[in-house]
Design a protein that fits this description.
With 174 residues, the chain is mostly helical. It is built from 10 helices and no strands. 63% of the residues lie in helices and 0% in strands.
Length: 174
């Protein structure tokens, strides 16, 4: 995997966890982060299927979180973070696609299957179980992060392009 794609994945995961915070406690935080990171990773591998694609996004930049912040009503100044530079590495499309995957287990399984033989996997085993088959603890830890109604404003931004990427039409996905 290109060296800079993890920065996009990390920033996008961080944004999702700030916008849809996990339940209280270190264990819940870790479970929610694992789910968000898996969703963003699958989304990234779908959107940037080759090392060249991933390198290009690193060179031109992913766009940042400004539009997502407006959609959700979050202001970077509302957060306790003094360092907001990470927000420039947030990828709006990845955030939207990850929201779609977190809200729809069937779609998540299809997306994880689609990346299973991608260049990014390259012979390694990837387990996206927390994304595709969350257990009760996972669901309790990430109740906001998996709530379809709460995710809808973000998921709807780029849902159509995700469905096209997975060769689904809207009727089939519904």
């Amino acid at each position: 995997m290109p060296a800079d794609l993890p920065a996009v994945i990390a920033a996008t995961t961080r944004w999702l966890l700030r916008a849809y915070p996990p339940a209280r406690g270190a264990f819940s935080t870790a479970l929610a982060e694992a789910q968000a990171r898996q969703a963003v990773t699958v989304a990234a591998w779908l959107r940037y299927p080759t090392s060249l694609d991933a390198s290009l996004v690193t060179m031109v930049g992913p766009g940042g979180s400004a539009h997502l912040d407006r959609v959700t009503g979050v202001s970077p100044s509302d957060t306790a973070d003094e360092d907001t530079a990470w927000r420039t590495w947030v990828d709006e499309v990845l955030t939207s696609w990850a929201a779609c995957l977190l809200a729809d287990g069937r779609l998540a399984a299809m997306a994880a299957g689609a990346v299973s033989d991608s260049e990014h996997v390259a012979g390694s085993q990837c387990d996206f179980r927390r994304l595709t088959k969350p257990d009760e603890r996972d669901r309790q830890a990430a109740v906001l992060l998996r709530h379809p109604d709460l995710l809808a404003p973000i998921a709807d931004l780029h849902r159509a392009s995700l469905l096209r990427r997975l060769d689904l039409d809207s009727a089939e996905a519904a």
